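Quarterly update from the structural biology core.
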Amino acid sequence: MRPSQIKHAVRHLMSKNRPVFIWGPPGVGKSDIVQSIADEDKLQLIDFRMALRDPTDLKGFPMPDVKTSTMKFFRDAELPTKGKGILFMDELNSATPATMATGMQLSLTGKIGDYTLPPGWRIVAAGNREGDRAAVNRMPSALSLRFTHLDLEVSLADWCTWAMEHNQPLDMIAFLRFRPGLLHAFDPAKRSSPNPRSWNFVAQAADGTLDADTEYEVTKGIVDEGAAAEYTAFKRVYKDLPTIDSIMLNPDKVAVPEQIDTLYALSTALGAAAKRDTFDRMMQYVTRMPIEFQVVAVRDAARKTKEVASTKAFVKWGIANAEIAI
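Predicted structure, tokenized:
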């Protein structure tokens, strides 16, 4: 399922008080999806990293009560006692079998020992797949059956939407549209490999403040040598694009490039630069591009600046290309 589908499904299942388990390889955004649901729905989020927990963190630490000759359990202070939120059992299948067993009891009944999960709280879990060579343990069937299991797939369209909203480098967005296979090329045999999380690290680390050689080495250390070399070469193409100002001054005369990589770069740059008062003029140039790149520019423009949807050029283009969903 695409990230946008996962979010919709998780919200639906939470409304039914059904525990959810999100499966996916490392670096595809499982934790980010849960965080975004909590942020958007104004819910508290407790990130309970199960791989780092002992059974007593859920069940409580046993302490003797001399007066009653019984044992009391001192609970972890992180467990919620009021309000509404998500108890996120991340890395659940990386926990020890004993810790997973305590999670099983809590996910089924909402209770463990004398602790009861407040009615406004829901349980969501996540973990890597066994085939990813991550440090995971096989989930007992009794625990697995407690959850509704959702498989997260990488989606370039969803990632581009997220990247535009979070101001990721435009040259990176354009590059991954040109080379979509490098958005997620996870290889457990390598020290580093491209995935959505690692590209975000590249955006943070290779921010233009390093010299070119050092920036390349840093990028290589995050996404591996092949992806780093391709991205570095693409950035040179991006720097040599016609300027947005030159296009706006002469939209009917500035040459439209023929190279595919340059077209991806230029259509992404145009969409990001779109403004309502200049959109009609921009579209004079965009409509000279191949239709697939027109779609990229128009889609990005509509997402970034919703006001362009009311322009004459947008309406005209939409009517002429009604069969194309943007």
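The chain is about 45% helix and 10% strand.
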